[in-house]
Each structure stands twice: as structure tokens, then as C-alpha cells.
Amino acid sequence: MLSSAALRQKQFVVAAPVVSQLWRRATTATAPAAARSILGRYNVPTVSTSRFFSTKMATKAAASHTAIFVPDMMCRQCEQTADHIACTTQGVCGKSSETSALQDTLMDSIKSLSLWCVAARATPSIAREDPVLEKANVLTLKATFSTLTNVNFSSTRIVDYIRQVESVKDELKTKVIAGGGGESVNETEYGTVAAMDLRDKTDAELEEYGQTYSGLDVRSAAMNHDDAFSLNEIGTYGLKGVCAYASHVYQMVGKTDPEIMTAIHEIYAKLASPVPDIEGFLANALRVGQVNAQVLAALNGAHADTLGIPEPSPVLTTAVEGKAILVSGHDMNDLYYLLQQTEGKGVNVYTHGEMLPAHSYPKLKAFPHLVGNYGTAWQNQKFEFASFPGPIVVTTNCILEPRRVYKDRLYSMNEVGLDGVQHIGSDRDFTAVIEQAQQMKGFPRDITPAKYHTTGFNHRAVLPLAGKVIEAAQSGALSRIFLIGGCDGSQWNRSYFTTLAKQTPDDSLILTMGCAKNRIIHNPELEGATLANGLPRVLDMGQCNDAYSAVVLATELAKAMNCSVNELPLSFAVSHLEQKAAAVILTYLSMGIKNIRLGPSLPAYITPNVLNMLVQKYNLRGPGDPAQDLQAMMEGK
């Protein structure tokens, strides 16, 4: 990875505010030749517009000291970022530079709101249950969730979130000042975020604000310390994942947790500071992991309390004749409401992607028209959605820019946003979806033999088997346990996880969860495989948030075997893509778990020095050759 300093030394200018403002002024008002003339007055070398200038081209030009590249956007929050440096013209995900700028503005607005939330909790006259503070809590979660990879591509929706945040912030600020508080919200400590007021800005001005003040490049320049900024980014993207999971909890229980929200706002407040505090940002990132563990526990409990304790359940993976609706995303409560509204309507409901574990919850699988699971992971949706003969509801991430063949039967919910796609509101009224399903042909009769996959190996189901696992491990009948799963993507090198799983010994156990499990559960070499004691070799623990089950299982096994988690015969190979995965990784690190292989590549926002810090403390590493990595894992390395 090229650090910000290295990029500057190579004259790959990452938007110094003056230059970037001049560049925008020149390119929006004049021809490129005139832009060069304007920038030339400031001793800026030849300029190439980033709209036709890839990151790779920019790097080459920078190396030859012939050009300065001022990008339209700078986003590197996901593992698939362009050239593993940053997306600079359009996101690999499809996000436009305009939406990226607005999301940057929104993140600064959330930080500003968080400063006032921290001040509100320090103001004696404002109760923790204050309705304005609760509005701020909910909005913090939802607005943050909208900025995750593959969630919201709609500039209109992002602008709406900014306006909501600014309105609630003003309402809360008024109460804090009336109560004699607010001294902690100052520009000396927090810079422009402390004073920002965007209530009267036009949509165009909100976008310009993001380009000028909130972008990754501008914030990096303000901190002027690559390693400190790297740790700030690690905390930021991890916190995005925490807020997404906490939003799932809110969807289930209808309220926020005061302790968790206090921590989230305090973490945001630290991230708002431009002071290059390496130790502080490292502690803040690890705190993100600790809070995420609390949130995952709350989500696990909310699912079990509302939908019943998940249990191992066979799921039909072939089609049933009849009308059909497909549900993708993560939100189990949305699925429950859809199942209620489709009762007796002659429509079957299928899950997709991360919704597969829904079939393990008693309250959901009690609906006979929840007939099965269709398709695989999110990155295959453009093909799988196109061939599905009914409407598709996407409750949360991940969503991609749809193909025309199914765009008119695609529906978004909650924080998900795509222009031109129908959105279902908070009332969860699925009438339009049901009527469209009834009008379509649905699946024809099929004589293909039925196929099944078993999901639902939640820690509650696996812990009663702990005695068998411990006995097998101590007797040598179980050579090792592998956790292989996480967040999937489309790069070719993600086959590492499939290859690793296939090469694991026949007497080993594989725990898997998240969308990356699709690389394992559909593999013919692993399907139906069992251990000598009858346990399945592959245990599907559920969604990405069911990483919590793996944490509980590891902790309880360590207690039973009287050792630490790192002394267990347990190895981690974690696939990551977006910010929920970043939160899970920080949870593992906050627990002190070592020897994690994180891939298919390490995040672009980790500098060499920060990576060295993580290697020394946790032996965190990227994947290598699967056979060599497996040998090291078998040796506990």
C-alpha cells in the first residue's frame, strides 16, 4: 500500500484542500486547458482529469513525476477498493463520486451529532431516556448503516439522512446549552466537525462540503500522520459495522441500549479528533471490538427471544412449483412480517444469501410457505435475481446496481437505497410485492430431485455437544477445528478459502458463517461429510453476526479444557469485504485471539507500521499458499 506521505512525495496529490477546490472550480467552469492554466499559477504540474484517469494510470504518472492527480472521490473502506489503493472516479461497488461525497458529509454530521450526544449525557438536566437523545441514538445507527458498502447508492436518501441528523443535532444542542452544558464541543479539540451547521445548505452544497472538508484525503491531510490516520480509519470502519449490527437489534426490539449508545457516541467523538493520537486510536479501535461483542450478544438474544432458539434444520435448496417471493439481506423481523402478510395468498417465500439461517428459527419455519433457500452469496445476485420468477425484497446489505431484467421487481427496505427501485417504508406494507408475485408465473413443476442443506448450528445447539468435541480432541480423533467464513466477494483469490477448506484433514471440524460459507457448504467434497463420532464435518453457524456463536463456543471450550482460546486446537481464516467484517475482526482482536489469517488481502487502509504493530501483538496476517498455511495451522501457528 502507498501511504499518504509516499503519495505526496511522488506528487500523487491526494486533494490538498486548496488544490482540490481550485480543480473543482476550474473543471466545472472551464475547459481542461483553462484548468491547467489556473493550477499553473500555483505551481501545479500537468493535470489529468480523474474522470478519465484510473488509479493505476495516476500511480504510473506519479512515479514519473509528470502529473498531479486530483481524484473525484477517495474511498477505500472495502477490501475490493480499486487497485487496492482507493476508488477515485467511481466505486468498484458502483457508488458515484457524488454519493461518496455526500456519505463523507453524512459521516462528519454524525460525528458532530455524537459530540452533542456526549455533551448531553454530561448535562444533569438531560435524562438518559430523553426522547431527543433517543432520536439521536436511532438516527446514529441508521444513518451510519446507510454508508456501508453495498447499502445505499441513492444521493437523495443520503441527503435526507444529513438533514435529519442536522435537525436532531440542533434540537439536542439547544437542550444541552439550556442545561448549561456543551463546553466539550469545541473547535480546538475537534476542528470543523464541532462547528459544522448544514441546515440551510442546498443538496449541491452538501456534496461540495464532503469534497472540501469531509473526504478521506482532506481528513488525512488534517491529521498529517499516516499511522494515526490508519488507526482512525480502522476504528471508523469497525464502528460502521457495529452501528449496522445495532440497527438490526433496534429492528428487533424497537429501542436502543443506553450503555451501547453511550460507547458508540464516545468512540465517534474520539474519531472526530484530528489530533494524531496513535495509542488513543488503537485503544479506541479495540473498544469498537468490545462494544461489537456486546451488540452481537444483544442481536443473538433478540433473535432467540423473538423468533425462538435456532436449531439445526434441513433447508430445501431446490425450487417448489408456484408463485414466489425472494428475500435477501439480513433482517429476520422483516421476513417475519412478510410471512404473516403472505399467509393464505398462494405465494411461496424463499430466502437468499445471508437470510438462509432464517429456516433454523422455530417461529419462522412454522410458516409452511417459507419453502426454501434460493441462490448463494450476494455477489451472484445479478444472475440469481434475474432468473428468479418473482419479486425480490432486499432488507439490508448487500445490494448491487440491478440489471434491467429485474429492476422493476426489486424492492428495498430500511437503510437500503437505489434510485429507481421501489422502497418499502417503516410500516412494512408488502402489498405491492405480494400483488406482483401473484401476477407472475412463478416456478414451474420441476422433476429435479430435492436437495437440502442443514443450517442452525448456533452455539446453543453446539455447546451441548461440547463433551463430544472435547473427548474427540483429547483422544486424537479430532485433529483440529477451523473457523473459515466471513464476508464474501467476487475476486478470484477468494478461492483461497475454498481450497483451504477442501485440504483440511478428514478428522477436522469446520465452523462457518456469513456469506463466505457458500464457498464451503456447496462444495461437493465437503457436503455430507461427517466425523467418526457422527458429527457433521461442516457446521453452518448462521449469518455474519453469528460470529458471536463462534466466540461463545471458543470461550466455553477453553473453559472446559482449562486453557486459553489461543491454546485451543482452533485456527481462524476470516474472509472480509465490508465494515461488518471489520467490526468482527476487531472483536476477535479485543479478545486477544492470535494467528488470524485475514484475506483475501489486508485492508488498504492499514499502513506498514500499523500492520507491523498488529503482527507483533496478534500475529495477524494475510493468506499465503493454502497447503503451507494449513501445515502451520495444524501446528497451532
Task: Walk me through this protein's architecture.
- This protein has 637 residues and is an alpha/beta fold.
- It has helices at residues 4-9, 17-29, 32-40, 55-63, 97-121, 131-145, 155-178, 187-190, 192-195, 203-214, 216-223, 226-253, 258-272, 278-307, 332-342, 362-365, 381-387, 404-407, 431-439, 459-462, 466-475, 495-503, 518-521, 547-560, 579-590, 608-618, 626-634; strands spanning 313-316, 323-328, 347-351, 370-373, 392-394, 410-413, 422-424, 452-455, 481-486, 509-513, 538-542, 570-575, 597-599.
- It starts with a helix and ends with a helix.
- Mean pLDDT is 89; it is low at 1-68.
What are the main properties of this structure?
globular; single chain; disordered N terminus; 637 residues; alpha/beta; 49% helix; five-stranded parallel beta sheet; 27 helices; six-stranded parallel beta sheet
